[in-house]
Amino acid sequence: MLWFTPMIFNSLAFFVFFGVVYALYRVLPHGWRRLMVLAASYVFYGWFDWRYVSLLLLSTAGAYCCALALDRPSSGGRRAWLIAGVALNLSILGVFKYFNFFAGEVNQLLSTVGLANRLPLTELILPVGLSFFTFQSISYIVDVYRGRTPACRNVLDVSLFIAFFPQLVAGPIERSSHLMPQLQAEPKWGGGRMAEGTQLVIWGYYRKLFVADNLAALVASVYDNPGAPNGLHLLIATYAFSWQVYCDFAGYTDIARGLARWMGVDLVRNFRLPYFASSPADFWQRWHISLSRWLRDYLYIPLGGSRRGRWRYHLSLMATMLLGGLWHGASWNFILWGGMHGVLLMIQHQLPAFTPTRLGRAVGIIFTFHMVCLANLCFRAHDLTQVWTLLSGMTFEPAATAEAMRSLPSLLLPIHLVLLVELAQYLHGRDEHLPAGAPVSLQLGLNAVLLASIFLLGSTYGLRFIYFQF
Predict the structure, then answer these.
(1) pTM score over 0.85
(2) Could you tell me which residues come within 8 angstroms of residue 200 by beta carbon, excluding any fewer than 6 positions away?
């Protein structure tokens, strides 16, 4: 039934929800419009599990109160308020996302040394999008502390900034200086925003429903089956997952940006042709850009960054990447994934020759893409045991290899159009989805292909977006 369907972008429930919200958004006065969007955002989040709206409210209340306290120049204890606000959000993350992981590791250590005492494990379900809205709340508190943005005294503005539903559960992670003024002002309707938003929405649904969801079965055939697969089958599934997770997450971002643009709001870019990155550092300037910048500004630089010598740089960088891996999930395989990216970044820093100008940009792109895919094997695996099983048990028996070759079209067919479009964007220096300068007939024809692919060949299973779990 409609009312029991999860409120995800590719669900009938969301289409009805957004249709009602958008109709009201266009006719209500601005003051009532903002109240309606805030109420709709809480309905949207509560649809997943209404009990966890309390966490969203708690994070918002903490950000609002701490920011007001921090904005008083004459008041003492500003650092204490900063710590309190950050600690509140990290505590929410810690209890719901990381407690069982660390408690399980402690219990295993206690068992190893022969101690019977065990920490109790919780049965809490991870709230959807928890890492996104807590990080957004933290950024607001820290920016007020640093004097980069004034504290907002209107609780509606702060609430709407943290809960704005298009980007609430999977980003992009916004800064208050960018998003809050847009939500406070009258929406901007002109300037081709409807056409731009429509293009983003179509492209986003194509990447999610046609590319990512059709690759999901190929990926699951290897990663969700016990035992070690044929080596070629593992390679194909790993390349498939790299495109799946990219198109799934970038597809969500495209849809979120498109819906927001219909509402007169511009959300930040989160992806910029990441698989055309020519080095590991270039990759992190193109992949999940809002998280990369968050980690840089609120973790890497406070840890010392590159200002305090080579060893402090390496320590800050590795700590940032390990914690970035842990942000993605409470599991050692995510920590290993972050560590692998940290090592690649340190190698690049230590070897100045490892640059596009010396190796050749094409070589840099190919190398970086394959290193990202190798790290993604750890990202997709269920745990470190499976990582070891997959890598150590690979075989290339002729019969199994021939069988694996038959799965190659299942990888190439979904990704070919995305690859061609992004290659054209890269070569022409235009990395915003469809070239704006292309003839109208070409754009209309391509959109017709995208829509036909969505409706005729797109997934109908309503698979959740991968990054909802983070």
Answers:
(1) yes
(2) 254, 255, 257, 258, 261, 433
Which listed residue (328, 349, 382, 416) is catalytic? 328
Enumerate the domain spans of the chain.
2-184, 193-469
Q: DSSP string spanning 254-306?
A: HHHHHHHHHTT-PPPP--S-GGG-SSHHHHHTTSSHHHHHHHIIIIITTTTTT
219-230 pLDDT, tens digit each: 998 898 877 677
70-97 average pLDDT score:
86
Q: Name 387's Cβ contacts closer than 8 Å, sequence gap at least 6.
A: 333, 336, 377, 378, 381
Asked about 178 being catalytic, the answer comes back as no
Q: What is the pLDDT of residues 241-267, one digit of tens each?
A: 999 999 999 999 999 999 999 999 999
pLDDT digits (tens, 9 = 90+) for 419-438: 998 998 888 876 665 655 66
Signed CA dihedral, 111, 115, 116, 118: sign only = negative
282 compared with 359, residue with greater pLDDT: 282
Residues ≥6 apart with Cβ < 8 Å to 107 = 118, 119, 121
Asked if residue 41 lies in contact with residue 163, where contact means CB atoms within 8 angstroms, the answer is yes
Biggest CA-to-CA distance, the chain: 76
- 27 Cβ neighbours under 8 A, 6+ residues apart: none
Mean pLDDT of 11-22: 92
Q: Which two tokens stand for residue 210?
A: 């046609």
pLDDT at 208: 93
**Exposure b/e, 303-325, CB count within 10 A at least 16 = b:** bbeeeeeeeebbebbbbbbbebb
CA distance 241 to 368: 16
Residue 455, token pair as written in the block: 């409706």
Give me the half-sphere count of Cα atoms (radius 13 Å) on the Cβ side of residue 203: 25
| Structural contact between residues 318 and 339, judged by C-beta atoms closer than 8 angstroms | yes
